[in-house]
User: Which sequence fits this backbone?
């Protein structure tokens, strides 16, 4: 069967960081400032049990938010800040909303410029773009660790670990009432044996 993504085979984007492939451009938003923990968070940052860790994070040891993960508002850090998910004194923060998908890792890559570190800014894609994500959840997070699969048309949310998921109960945005999580996007192409990317049409 032909690959609908034009030859991007399994594993093409599995490196040591997150990758975003832009199929249809939305807004590359650089308004706002990264939180301090956007440079230091572990990956995964919240649910760390080995049975729950996404297979797409295999081989990634880099700290900080990664390209292909969800950018959230972070009112706990101040007006205009954004970053990844965070626990404070073992409680989920309230008021975080998904803004879009980070384009780059906050710490950059070896032998390249590190604009996030230099500027304190972390651009993210929003505004009805179509993007292919190399990082996404492959397991349930809050209710066991069962495997999850994606299908075209699924709604996806900003998950508790900052990865996109189609399990609404695993949303980070509102831990007390999972059904109120913002729809981040709709699955356009599901990952399979011929394609390692999760392609979504953004709705934020």
Assistant:
């Amino acid at each position: 069967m032909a690959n609908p993504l034009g030859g991007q085979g399994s594993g093409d984007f599995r490196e040591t960081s997150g990758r975003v492939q832009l199929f249809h451009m939305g807004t590359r938003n650089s308004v706002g400032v990264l939180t301090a923990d956007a440079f230091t968070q572990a990956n995964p940052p919240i649910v760390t049990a080995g049975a729950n860790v996404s297979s797409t994070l295999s081989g990634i040891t880099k700290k900080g938010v990664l390209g292909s993960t969800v950018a959230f508002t972070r009112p706990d850090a101040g007006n205009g800040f954004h970053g990844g998910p965070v626990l404070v004194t073992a409680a989920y923060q309230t008021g975080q909303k998904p803004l879009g998908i980070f384009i780059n890792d906050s710490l950059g890559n070896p032998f390249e410029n590190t604009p996030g570190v230099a500027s304190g800014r972390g651009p993210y894609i929003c505004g009805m773009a179509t993007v292919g994500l190399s990082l996404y959840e492959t397991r349930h997070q809050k209710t066991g660790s069962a495997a999850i699969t994606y299908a075209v048309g699924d709604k996806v949310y900003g998950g508790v670990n900052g990865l996109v998921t189609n399990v609404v109960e695993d949303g980070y945005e509102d831990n007390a009432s999972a059904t109120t999580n913002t729809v981040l996007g709709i699955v356009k192409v599901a990952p399979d044996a011929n394609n390692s990317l999760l392609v979504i049409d953004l709705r934020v």
